[in-house]
Amino acid sequence: MTFDDLGRRFSTEKKCRDYLYRLRFPKGFVCPKCSNNKSWPIGDTLFECSKCGRQTSVIAGTIFQDTREPLRTWFTAIWWVTTQKNGASAIGLQQVLGLKSYKTAWTWLHKIRKAMVHPNRLKLTGKVEVDEAYIGGEERGGSTGRGTSNKVLVAVAVELLDGGKVGRSRISIVPDASGDSLVGFIKDNVEQGSKIVTDGWSGYAPLAKQSYEHEIHLKKTATDDEELLPHVHTIISLLKRWLLGTHQGAVSEKHLQSYLDEYVFRYNHKRGLLFYRLLECAMLVPPTTLRELLAPKSDGLP
Predict the structure, then answer these.
(1) CB neighbour burial string for 53-88, b if at least 16 within 10 angstroms, e if fewer
(2) Looking at the predicted structure, is the pLDDT value of residue 32 above 70?
(3) Residue 144: is its pLDDT beyond 50?
(4) Gap between the Cα atoms of 302 and 300, Å rounded
(5) What is the pLDDT of residue 41?
(6) How far apart are CA 18 and CA 288, in angstroms?
(7) Exposed, middle or buried, 100 (CB in 10 Å: 0-12/13-18/19+)?
(8) Rounded Cα distance, 211 and 227, in Å
(9) Cα–chain center distance at 138
């Protein structure tokens, strides 16, 4: 969808609200309090339940809740974010929307990133490659092995499909490379009964006691990780290039997971559908305030 297409399809606030209404109530209105399916409109934005009298708006409980800006501006922001091949920056969003405050653009962008994780997303299935990587410095190895003091460790999983193709991925920060952390990541992101493909690292040994089939690829040399697990290492390489190219590597550990979520969202969805998929998720993800984004400590914006 081009920018002109966006302007024609969502040219008014009513068109934006009507589209969000269909996303939120695909089978018609349902009261969030009593589940009654009858209501009447109150003004342009509210609906009152005919049974319990609760008034609700289409955007209540979503990332758009309490916004002071037009929905058309939000739609433009989401369209711009999803059309950026190499990811979006707060400065770029500020310029596109003509916002006076960088803080506002940064907040909007992180709210949009929150919506990139579907609250009911399905776990990976089938054959899944899993490995870890350090973000922000050298890869594991050398004198410190799998433990370093100045890098962030992330776990990466990718589905392996028939014909040598790859499916969906998952990437999450993990505290360390222990069995508790790595198997915990797998249990959170991969369906039980799946085949997990890893290297011989002892942190994956507890998989033998879990409901997974474990396939181990052993190293012949100290540098053949990419040959052992080529698909997951392709994702790791692309992720590092993306972080460096879009954000010049200047991503704080505090907010790194949201950037990982953005990368996974872009990787897992066809580019032409990103705008629509993100709007769908935005209607399911609860609102987030700037204070919550900066918690637990307020150390400024990255």
Answers:
(1) eeebbbbbbbbbeeeeeebbbbbbbbbbbbbeeebb
(2) yes
(3) no
(4) 7
(5) 92
(6) 23
(7) exposed
(8) 27
(9) 25
Place of tokens 């969202």: 265
Q: What's the confidence (pLDDT) of residue 246? A: 66
The residue ranges of every structural domain in the chain are 127-239
CA 270 to chain centre: 14
Predicted structure pTM score: 0.86
* Mean per-residue pLDDT, 234-241: 92
Q: Are 135 and 151 in contact (CB under 8 A)?
A: yes
Say which amino acid occupies 244.
Answer: L
What is the residue type of 238? L
238 close to 183: Cβ distance less than 8 angstroms: no
| Cα–Cα distance for residue pair 241/218, rounded to 1 Å | 27
Q: What distance in Å separates the CA atoms of residue 244 and residue 284, rounded to the nearest whole number?
A: 31
Q: In 3D, which of 231, 28, 206 has the Cα closest to residue 129? A: 231
Q: List the structure tokens of 32.
A: 């969030």
Q: Which two tokens stand for residue 83?
A: 């059309």
What are the pLDDT digits (tens) for 51-84? 999 999 999 999 999 998 999 999 999 999 999 8
State the fold for domain 127-239.
Nucleotidyltransferase; domain 5 (3.30.420)
CA distance 260 to 278: 16
Q: Which amino acid is at 162?
A: D
Cβ contacts of 36-42, under 8 Å, gap ≥ 24: none
